[in-house]
Amino acid sequence: MLSINSLKVSFDRPIIQGIDLHLDSQKAILLGTNGSGKTTIIRSISGIVEYQGEIKINGISTKKNEKVEGFSTNLPEIFKLGRTVNEMATLYEELMGIDYFLFMDFLEEMKMKEIMNRKFKKLSAGQQLIVRNALALSSKPMVYALDEPFENVDLSRRDTIAKWAKEIGLEGILVTHEADMLTSEYLRDFEIYFLVDGKIYGPVNVEELLSSKIEYREEPGSKMLMEKNGKKIFLVKGSEQNVSEVIKEIDFIMR
């Protein structure tokens, strides 16, 4: 179980302003713009940054910055060892208990087995991210936290990452700014949270969101989706607005 209570993080200014999030045998998408604090939340969950409040994974606090069994993340701070991709996989097989053969299966599914003997730092940004995603998930974690798992990844490969996220783990949270990924068939059972101005709104089921209409005024049967710049935004179920229009509207709101 992933439990976040009254999380606050500040650097030069407040970044996260007292959020709560609880996942119990659930998977979630945290949608927010670049610079909204999404990565800060993942780094807090991973015990990398100092924070106020409480975060527990399977009942264990992450404040002590100790390894939590059954948890994995794709953050670059975690994967610093090894020169080649093969060396990284071998090292983290020993250090983190990743399944080397599952990792290879992931790369084969991506048609990327040829990179095994290449230096990790020489890979493209998208290739590096795919490797980190694969390393994180090939440890077969009970709980995972993935930071921008689709960024700089070819469109043809993004759905494969979504499939991994669906199949691996009992609970998981992935953060992204790419609203178009909500249309992936593999993410339809995920719950969506919105990170706006340091606060979290939600959850809303992906299917519910995609079959609803975004409105800027309250209507009968509507529910508040979020508040941004002092304006409330509502969700109206069962509208005739098509999926592409909903995605465009969400993308516009989250800018």
UniProtKB/TrEMBL annotation:
Give the record's keywords alphabetically.
Answer: ATP-binding, Nucleotide-binding
Tell me the Gene3D superfamilies matching this sequence.
Answer: P-loop containing nucleotide triphosphate hydrolases
Any signal peptide, and if so, which residues? Answer: none
What molecular function does GO assign, one term?
ATP hydrolysis activity
Q: Does the keyword Iron-sulfur apply?
A: no
Record InterPro entries: AAA+_ATPase, ABC_transporter-like_ATP-bd, P-loop_NTPase
Which domain of life does this protein belong to? Answer: Archaea
Describe the location of the ABC transporter domain by residue ranges. Answer: 1-222
Q: What's this protein's name?
A: ABC transporter ATPase
Organism per entry: Candidatus Acidianus copahuensis
Q: What is the lineage of its organism?
A: Archaea, Thermoproteota, Thermoprotei, Sulfolobales, Sulfolobaceae
